[in-house]
């Protein structure tokens, strides 16, 4: 049983898990679909019922069963636990109609990042992010997937407001495209973008410079969790302070892969954000744009 100050039973939320010392797949469950319904962000698989994964949630924590990708003897695991809340996260499940419709949300703020996945079909993860380039504040990115390295396919002016978003959100793996509204039963993970002093999440981007003295990103606070993806071809990079996001070597996971973590000095946290400290293509090729989601 894992204690947490987040009231998952009262407010709802999600638990994203990775075996960081081995090669078990990522596991994503939430309280809207039910915590036994398991999705894998690194694959196109439909949801599976895992009665021995997360077995219960409460106002003070959650209990993990014997499912290997959540609880294997001697292996290390990291859980990213997020509670639903205004300006931060809302989880929505709907039956797709086969055509684009507006989906209402109650974040109270314009979303910054949306993940959509069919729970009933073998479809790619459909992603939308508010960033295209530093000089374009009206378009956004769609046509990319957590299960693929492919470059973003579209710069779009899709309607995404502080009360609804259009579900014409695409996945793309370099050869195959799916759209969220084609997906049977679909779950949407709708993340806010809140740059206020009390905000807990920011979704934006930077342009690489190809130097170990890389771009400095200002958030107003030190991130505890970073997810970064190139708008060109590249892996999804996941860094967090629990495993090691430091000014020395960082513990690096990839959301699109089941691999174990590696260790490299890629990002330095600062009191007000972070700085890129590598020339690796996944984070810092000159003149390439990168999207990030930063959690406080």
Report on this structure.
It is built from 1 helix and 27 strands. The protein has one helix at 8-11, and strands spanning 2-3, 13-19, 27-30, 34-39, 48-49, 54-57, 61-64, 77-83, 89-95, 102-104, 111-118, 126-129, 140-142, 154-156, 164-166, 170-172, 177-179, 185-192, 201-207, 216-218, 225-230, 237-240, 250-254, 262-264, 267-270, 273-276, 289-295. The chain is globular, with a radius of gyration of 18 Å. The two termini are 24 Å apart. The mean pLDDT is 93.
Biggest sheet, in brief?
6 strands, antiparallel
The order of strands across the largest sheet is 9-18-11-12-13-14
- Helix/strand-derived category reads mainly beta
- Work out the oligomeric state of the chains in this entry: single chain
Q: Count the E strands.
A: 27
Give the N-to-C terminal Cα separation: 24 Å
- pLDDT averaged residue by residue: 93
Question: What's the helical proportion of residues?
Answer: under 10%
The shape, in one word, is globular
SSE order: EHEEEEEEEEEEEEEEEEEEEEEEEEEE
SSE layout and pairing:
Elements: E1 2-3, H1 8-11, E2 13-19, E3 27-30, E4 34-39, E5 48-49, E6 54-57, E7 61-64, E8 77-83, E9 89-95, E10 102-104, E11 111-118, E12 126-129, E13 140-142, E14 154-156, E15 164-166, E16 170-172, E17 177-179, E18 185-192, E19 201-207, E20 216-218, E21 225-230, E22 237-240, E23 250-254, E24 262-264, E25 267-270, E26 273-276, E27 289-295
Antiparallel strand pairs: 1-7, 2-3, 2-8, 3-4, 4-5, 6-7, 9-18, 10-15, 11-12, 11-18, 12-13, 13-14, 16-17, 19-27, 20-26, 21-22, 21-27, 22-23, 23-24, 25-26
């Amino acid at each position: 049983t894992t204690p947490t100050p987040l009231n998952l039973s009262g407010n709802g939320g999600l638990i994203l898990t990775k075996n960081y010392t081995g090669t078990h797949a990522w596991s994503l469950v939430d309280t809207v679909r039910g915590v036994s319904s398991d999705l894998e962000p690194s694959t196109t698989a439909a949801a599976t019922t895992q009665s021995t994964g997360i077995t219960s949630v409460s106002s003070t924590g959650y209990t993990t069963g014997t499912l290997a990708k959540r609880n294997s003897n001697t292996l290390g695991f990291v859980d990213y636990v997020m509670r639903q809340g205004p300006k931060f996260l809302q989880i929505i499940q709907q039956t797709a109609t086969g055509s684009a419709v507006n989906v209402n949300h109650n974040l109270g703020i314009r979303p910054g990042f949306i993940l959509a996945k069919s729970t009933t079909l073998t479809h790619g993860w459909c992603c939308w992010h508010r960033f295209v380039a530093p000089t374009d504040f009206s378009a956004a990115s769609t046509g990319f997937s957590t299960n693929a390295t492919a470059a973003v396919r579209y710069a779009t002016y899709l309607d995404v407001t502080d009360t609804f978003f259009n579900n014409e959100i695409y996945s793309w793996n370099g050869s195959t495209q799916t759209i969220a509204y084609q997906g049977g039963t679909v779950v949407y993970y709708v993340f806010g973008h809140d740059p206020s002093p009390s905000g807990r999440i920011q979704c934006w981007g930077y342009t690489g410079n190809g130097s170990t003295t890389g771009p400095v990103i200002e958030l107003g606070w030190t991130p505890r969790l970073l997810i970064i993806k190139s708008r060109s071809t590249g892996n999804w990079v996941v860094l967090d302070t629990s495993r090691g996001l430091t000014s020395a070597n960082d513990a690096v996971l990839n959301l699109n892969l089941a691999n174990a973590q590696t260790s490299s000095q890629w990002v330095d946290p600062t009191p007000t954000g972070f700085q890129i400290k590598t020339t690796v293509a996944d984070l810092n090729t000159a003149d390439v744009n990168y999207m990030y989601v930063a959690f406080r």
